[in-house]
Amino acid sequence: MEAMKADARTSPIRLAFAAIQPILYGWAIVVVLGIFAYTVMADSPALGTTSWQDVAGITTGWWLTAFGGSLHFDGVAISLPPLLITLLTFVAFVGFVRKLPVRDWIDILVLIAASAAVPAVLGQITPTGTSWWQACIGAATMAFLAVLTSKNRTDWLGTGFFTTPAGRAIYDGLMLGRRALAVGLILATLVFVAAVIAGWSQIVTINSYYILEWHSNVMLWVFQLSYLPTFILWTLAYLVGAGFSIGTGSSFSVLGVESAPLPAIPLFGALPQPGDGAPFILAIVVLVLLFVGMRQARAFPALGEAALTGAIQVGIVALGCSFLALASRGSIGPERMSETGAEPAIAAGMGALILGVPFLLGMILAHRTSVAKYREVLGMAKDKASTIRAKAADSKQSVVAQNAHDTDDVQNGGSVSAPVTRGNGQGNHHDETGSETKLVVTDEGDTMEDNGGESPSVTVDDTSTAITAITARTAPDAEGKKND
Question: Residue 142's closest CA among 130, 154, 150, 152?
């Protein structure tokens, strides 16, 4: 009996109700806030003959933009999605679906169909010209992603194709791509917060242009905060170099900033000033992703597996950046303001280059095979350096030993070079052993030898006296005779 109960399919009505609740609750909160704002400003001449029913319809049309719809009123199209509403609805959807057993694709289709039906029904009370069918597609996509997120990944990706080597590589690449995108979003959030802090004075100045009561001012900031995730995605496009625009003729990127007249929205005071941008930020982002990729390298035993999975990760990052750019793109007014956000194609390319490729390189450079190769090359370099140092030391010792030997020869009466002088003449005296002795010959014919060696031949060139080998030998005899 318990086994039959465990295998029982969840009622489609229960599944549909679980899908409808988070979307319907989100719509109700938005409409209530809109009617509250209308009530506190009911005496404003700007409202004219607007009724609360009109406010409910306009607010519903604006709520549809959170899922991809487009609001049209007074000839103006608003389609930029307030992604905070989308995100909160997604989280609530995950919470509702997590409690239910979703067994197969039939259950998933029930959830998707119920999610798409809500915008289709509520879209009927929106102003004429409002596009609600895109919101149906967006709500269905959100429901599908929420179902995948709400369950254990092994329920969906642990069987069938994903158990093969190719399937596991795709699965691992998907997880790594999600991690790379998460790091990029964290960096974008930090940069956005820093920009708001740096530009706070400008934000306050723009806000002061509006002379509002406190409750109206609160509603203005609630409206801006609903676009907070949208602004963070714009910051991500800014960081990777893809850039984003707020109306035609403007571009905000780390590679350069070109601005044009902007609407007086307070948070736009955090935008960077026109100029050359800050390309060094690209280097910081690349280094961070390189480091994160290096930390993932240890999970793969083979270098080829790491390279393949990392390459799949690059593709996932490109698709993710393109999707995020598409989700944060839309219109906020007529003419120039009909184009805001990042270009999906450019975001895909720059996201893959700045986020995906460094992540892949980090995985390759820090892999155990690469590290072993580094150590091998380093060991060879050390051995070669040691050999060179050893040869240099041996050569130095040989030179020192030769110098010491020469010094000993000189001290023991070895070979020295010395001139022979007589008056103003000089010459060399070589003994029979080849040693050289300095002879000093006076004008009277006397000679003196420094070390008393015999000289077989001495030739001294002197302009006044020429001393030959004979006279050099007889010089001592002449000295002796003189003394006698």
Answer: 150
Tokens of 75: 């000839």
Separation of alpha carbons 386 and 381, rounded Å? 9
pLDDT greater at residue 155 or residue 482 = 155
Give the whole-angstrom CA distance, residue 97 versus residue 106: 14
Check if the beta carbon of residue 361 is closer than 8 Å to that of residue 354. no
The contacts of residue 134 (CB under 8 Å, 6+ apart) are 67, 68, 69, 70
Residues 6+ apart with CB under 8 A from 175: none
Q: How confident is the model at residue 43 (pLDDT cuts 50, 70, 90)?
A: low
Strand, coil or helix: what is 128?
coil
C-alpha of 99 from chain center: 39
For residue 131, what is the DSSP state?
A: B
CA 448 to mean position of chain CA atoms: 87
Helix, strand and coil content of the chain, in percent to the nearest 5, comes to 65, 10, 25
Q: What is the pLDDT of residue 208?
A: 86
DSSP state string for 66-123: GGT-BEEETTEEE----HHHHHHHHHHHHHHHHTS---SHHHHHHHHHHHHHHHHHHG
Beta-strand pair 421-422/439-441: parallel
Report residue 89 as tokens.
């609805």
Encode pLDDT of 332-359 as tens digits.
Answer: 888 888 889 999 999 999 999 999 999 9
pTM of the model: 0.76
The rounded distance, in Å, linking the Cα atoms of 420 and 457 is: 12
d(CA 393, CA 389): 6
For residue 26, give the DSSP letter.
Answer: H
Q: Write the DSSP symbol of residue 272.
A: P
Helix (H), strand (E) at residue 251: strand 251-253
Q: For the chain, how many residues are written?
A: 484
Q: Residue 446 gets which letter from DSSP?
A: -
Residues 455 and 473: their CA atoms lie apart, in Å, by: 8
| Tokens, residue 469 | 């080998």
- Beta-strand relationship, 447-449 and 340-341: unpaired
Half-sphere exposure of residue 7, counting CA atoms within 13 Å on the CB side?
3
Backbone Cα Rg of the chain? 46
Q: Please, what is the average pLDDT of the chain?
A: 81
Angle 110-113-116 (CA atoms, 0-180°, nearest 5)? 150
Measured between alpha carbons, how far is 439 from 419 in angstroms, rounded to an integer?
A: 7
